[in-house]
Write a structure and sequence with these properties.
This protein is α/β, with parallel strands linked by helices. The strands form four sheets. A six-stranded parallel β-sheet has the order 3-2-6-7-1-8. The protein has a six-stranded parallel β-sheet with strand order 11-16-15-12-14-13. Strands 4-5 form a two-stranded parallel sheet. The chain is globular and about 65 Å long.
C-alpha cells in the first residue's frame, strides 16, 4: 500500500509541453497553466501540491515562458528543496534554482558582501547556544542549558518578527526559565554585542543583512531582480514577516509570484510563522488567480473525514475529498490506564502488522513531545520491532553511509555499460551488503539496513539513469540530508512529521495537557494545537489509531479534540479500542 497516487504516465522527461499537463486533475491543471501574474494555490494535505507546482514550473520552461535560470522556487527545509530539484530535473527543468530562503539569502550575501562592504562575509554561526553561554558569563548570569535554548528561540522569534531589542522588551513576552524579563533582555544585548565584536552572523542575521543590502544599495536590488523574475513559494503558511519582507524585495514592483500553502497546517506560529500572508493574498493582489486543491490522493475516505471533522469551520480550512477507491479501516480511539500499557498495545499492533506483511518503513508512531518516546522505545524493544527516531543521528552522517557514498562516487567515475542495479550492488557488496538481511538485531543488522537503504534508491531512479547520474543525485541528497527510507518503524514528534506520510500511523498520548499542550492557554495557542493534530491525522494513508493514557505522570483526561471526532470517542481507559 503506497497511498492513492495520481497516475503518472512516464517518469521520463516529457516529450512535449502538453505532456506535462497529462495526469493532472482539473484544479492542478489550472494551477499549472497559470504561469504569469499572482497565483495562490490553496492546497490541502495530500492533494498533490508538489506535483502541481513542479509541473507548473516545468510547463513554463517547456513553453518558453520561463527561462529556467530566472525562476526561484523557495521552501523552508533543505530536504524539501532537494525534493523540488529532483522532481524538476526529471521534468526537464534542471536549471531552476530550488532553495530555502536562507540558502538564497546566503548565496546573495556571499556574492555582494565583498563588493558592497569589502572583505569576506562574516562567519555564520552554526548555533547560538555557545555564544549565548559566553554572553551570560560576561554579564555574570548563571543560566542552564535548557534556558539558553529558550533564549535562543526568543532571539529567533524577535528577529523574524522584525523587532528590535527595545521592541521585544515592550512586548512583555514570558521570560525563559528562571530569568527575569530584564535579565532576558540584558542577555540578548550581551549576545548581540559579543557577536558583533567577533564579526559573526547568526541564521536570522543572514536574512536581515540580505534584506538591508537590497534596500540600501540600488545596484544590488537591480542585479537581484534582473537575475530572478519568477518566484514560487511552497508552504507559504509558514512564512515569517522577515521572510515576507525579503520576498517583497526580491520581487520589487513585479507580481509574478505563485504561493502554495494550507492554513490548516500552520504549526510554527510560536517561531514567528504567520498564515495571514496566505489568507490575505487575494486581498493584496486583487487580480490573483486562486486555485483550491481539495482532492486528497493520500488517505482513505475514513481518515479524510476524520481530518475534515477536526477542522470544520476553522479559518481558511479546506474540505478534503478522498480520491482513493479502496476501503480501509475506520480510525479508532483507545484509552489505556498508563502510558506503559499504551506503548505495549501499540508495539503489539505494529508487530502484528509486520507479521501480516507490512513494511516497517510504512509504519509510524507520532507524539507531541520527545519525552513520550521512552516507553515506546522500551515496548518496541521488548516486542522485537526495529525502529528509528526521526531527528536523532542523521543517515548521511553514519560512518558506513559516508564510506559507501565515497566508494560509489569513485566507482561511477569509470565508464561502464553495466545496468545501474549491478553497478551499485557490486560496490555495496564489497562493503558487506547482501541480498538477505542478517538474522539478528545489533550493529551488523544496523549497518546492513543503512546499505540496503542506499540500494533501495536504485528502484527510485528514473529509467535510463546512469551510474554517474545516480551518484550525482546521491551527493545532492547527502548535501540536503534527504534521507532514504530504512526498514524500521518511525518514531517522531508531530512537528517532525510535517511533510511525511506512512500507510499506518499511531497517534499516541492524546491526553489533555499534551494535545493541547499544557502551556497552550490562549485561544490562538489551542488553535495551533488543533492544527498540529490535523497534521498528524493527515500523515496516514490507510490506517489511523488514536490513543491516550489516563495516568501518564499524573492523572490525565482525554484530549478535548477527541470528542469532536464523532461517536467513536474515548471513554474510560480500557486497553482496547472504543
Amino acid at each position: 500500500m503506497t497511498g492513492f497516487t495520481q497516475p503518472d504516465p512516464s517518469r521520463h522527461e516529457p516529450d512535449s509541453p502538453q505532456a506535462l499537463l497529462d495526469g493532472l486533475d482539473d484544479a492542478q491543471r489550472v494551477a499549472a497553466e497559470a504561469l504569469l501574474g499572482p497565483v495562490c494555490v490553496l492546497a490541502g494535505a495530500g492533494t498533490g501540491k508538489t506535483r502541481a507546482i513542479t509541473h507548473r514550473i516545468a510547463y513554463g520552461v517547456a513553453t518558453g515562458v520561463y527561462a529556467p535560470n530566472r525562476v526561484m522556487a523557495l521552501t523552508f527545509t533543505s530536504r524539501a528543496a532537494s525534493e523540488l530539484r529532483t522532481r524538476l530535473r526529471a521534468l526537464g527543468a534542471s536549471g531552476v534554482a530550488a532553495r530555502t530562503f536562507h540558502a538564497s539569502a546566503l548565496s546573495q550575501l556571499n556574492y555582494f558582501w565583498p563588493i558592497v562592504v569589502g572583505g569576506g562575509l562574516p562567519r555564520v554561526l552554526d548555533g547560538k547556544a555557545r555564544l549565548l553561554g559566553q554572553a551570560a558569563e560576561r554579564i555574570r548570569l548563571r543560566v542552564d542549558t535548557a534556558t539558553l535554548r529558550d533564549v535562543a528561540a526568543e532571539i529567533e522569534w524577535r528577529k523574524v518578527s522584525e523587532l528590535s531589542i527595545d521592541d521585544y522588551a515592550r512586548a512583555n513576552r514570558p521570560a525563559p526559565g528562571s530569568l527575569s524579563a530584564e535579565q532576558a533582555v540584558d542577555l540578548q544585548r550581551a549576545y548581540e554585542a559579543l557577536k558583533d565584536e567577533r564579526r559573526q552572523l547568526d541564521f536570522e542575521d543572514v536574512l536581515l543583512a540580505c534584506a538591508g543590502m537590497i534596500e540600501t544599495e540600488p545596484s544590488v536590488a537591480m542585479h537581484v531582480r534582473e537575475q530572478y523574475r519568477f518566484f514560487v513559494v511552497d508552504e507559504y503558511q509558514d512564512v515569517s514577516p522577515l521572510q515576507q519582507r525579503l520576498l517583497d524585495l526580491w520581487l520589487g514592483d513585479r507580481s509574478d509570484l505563485c504561493v502554495v500553502g494550507d492554513a490548516s497546517q500552520t504549526i510554527y506560529s510560536f517561531a514567528g510563522a504567520s498564515s495571514s500572508f496566505l489568507l490575505d493574498f487575494s486581498r493584496r493582489y486583487a487580480d490573483a488567480t486562486v486555485v483550491r486543491l481539495e482532492q486528497n490522493y493520500r488517505s482513505s475516505s475514513a481518515i479524510v473525514e476524520t481530518a475534515n471533522r477536526l477542522m470544520r469551520g476553522r479559518p481558511g480550512a479546506l474540505t478534503l475529498h478522498a480520491m482513493g477507491g479502496e476501503e480501509s479501516p475506520t480510525p479508532t480511539i483507545a484509552g489505556y490506564a498508563t502510558d506503559a500499557e499504551e506503548a505495549a498495545a501499540v508495539a503489539a499492533e505494529l508487530s502484528a502488522s509486520i507479521r501480516d506483511g507490512a513494511k516497517p518503513q510504512n509504519l509510524a508512531v507520532l507524539y507531541r513531545v520527545n519525552a513520550q518516546a521512552a516507553p515506546l522505545e522500551a515496548a518496541l524493544n521488548d516486542a522485537g520491532v526495529a525502529y528509528q527516531m526521526r531527528g536523532s543521528a542523521r543517515f548521511f552522517d553514519l560512518p558506513e553511509v559516508r564510506q559507501a557514498v565515497m566508494t560509489l562516487r569513485a566507482a561511477s567515475l569509470t565508464v561502464s555499460d553495466d545496468p545501474l542495479f549491478q553497478s551499485v550492488s557490486d560496490v555495496l557488496r564489497s562493503l558487506g551488503w547482501t541480498l538477505e538481511a542478517p538474522p539478528a538485531a545489533g550493529s551488523v543488522r544496523d549497518r546492513w539496513e543503512s546499505l540496503n537503504a542506499l540500494m533501495g534508491l536504485v528502484d527510485d531512479a528514473p529509467p535510463g539513469t546512469t551510474f554517474r547520474q545516480f551518484t550525482d543525485d546521491l551527493l545532492a541528497r547527502q548535501a540536503a540530508q534527504h534521507e532514504p527510507a530504512i526498514a524500521a518503524v518511525t518514531l517522531c514528534t508531530l512537528h517532525a512529521a510535517k511533510g511525511l506520510e506512512w500507510d499506518d500511523v499511531h497517534l499516541v498520548g492524546l491526553g489533555d495537557g499534551l494535545v493541547p499542550i499544557g502551556y497552550a492557554r490562549t485561544q490562538e495557542a489551542i488553535d495551533e494545537e488543533r492544527r498540529l493534530l490535523y497534521v498528524g491525522i493527515t500523515r496516514a494513508r490507510r490506517r489511523l489509531t488514536l490513543s491516550w493514557a489516563a495516568n501518564a505522570a499524573g492523572p490525565r483526561e482525554p484530549s478535548r479534540f477527541l470528542a469532536e471526532l464523532g461517536s467513536r470517542t474515548a471513554g474510560a481507559p480500557s486497553g482496547s479500542a472504543h
